[in-house]
Design goal:
The protein is an alpha+beta fold and about 160 residues long. The chain has helices at about 10-25, 35-45, 95-105, 125-130, and strands at about 1-5, 50-55, 60-70, 75-85, 110-120, 135-145, 150-160.
Length: about 160
C-alpha cells in the first residue's frame, strides 16, 4: 500500500467510498443526500491543506484530508478525516492514513491535532485514534443521530505534539 497525494483522476474511486460512508450515516456528520460535487468541495482540500489516497496498485483503498482545524487564532491546531473502502477495512489502511496525517501535521509545525466529531459508536475509529495517541477531551451527549442506535455522543479527540 502506498499513500500519495490526491489527483483529480482519483475522484472516480474516492467518491464511491465517500458515498458509501456518508449514505450509511453511521460515522460522519455529512448530509447523507450530498452530491458528488458537494462531497468534492468538502473533501478535496486546497493548499495549504492536503488530500491523499491510499492505493494498492491502481486501486484506491481509502482517502484522508487534513489541514488547519480553524482559521486565525485556531490555525495552529490541525485536523484530519479518513474514509476507507468497505472491503479494505481491518487491513491497516485507516491506521496508515492517520499516521500519514500526523506526520504531515508535525512537519508543518502544528501544535496538535483535533478531531471535532467522532461518533462514540464508531468503536474501531475511537480505538485506532487512542492507539495513535489521541484522547477524548469531551463528549457532546446525543449529538449524533445513528440510524440504528439512535442518539449517541460525539467525541472531541485531541493529541498534543
Amino acid at each position: 500500500m502506498l499513500i500519495r497525494e490526491f489527483d483529480d483522476q482519483d475522484w472516480s474511486q474516492v467518491w464511491p467510498i465517500i458515498e458509501d460512508v456518508v449514505r450509511a450515516a453511521e460515522t460522519f456528520t455529512y448530509d447523507p443526500e450530498m452530491t458528488a460535487d458537494e462531497a468534492y468541495a468538502i473533501w478535496v482540500e486546497a493548499p495549504p491543506g492536503r488530500t491523499v489516497v491510499a492505493v494498492d496498485g491502481d486501486r484506491v483503498l481509502g482517502s484522508a484530508k487534513m489541514g488547519a482545524n480553524r482559521p486565525g487564532p485556531g490555525a495552529h491546531v490541525s485536523t484530519a478525516s479518513f474514509m476507507v473502502a468497505a472491503d479494505a477495512r481491518g487491513r491497516g489502511v485507516g491506521t496508515a492514513l492517520c499516521r500519514d496525517a500526523l506526520t504531515w501535521a508535525r512537519l508543518r509545525g502544528y501544535a496538535g491535532m483535533q478531531f471535532n466529531a467522532v461518533a462514540e459508536s464508531n468503536r474501531s475509529a475511537v480505538e485506532l485514534y487512542r492507539r495513535e495517541g489521541f484522547e477524548v477531551v469531551g463528549t457532546v451527549p446525543g449529538a449524533f443521530r445513528h440510524p440504528a442506535l439512535g442518539r449517541v455522543g460525539l467525541h472531541v479527540m485531541y493529541q498534543e505534539f
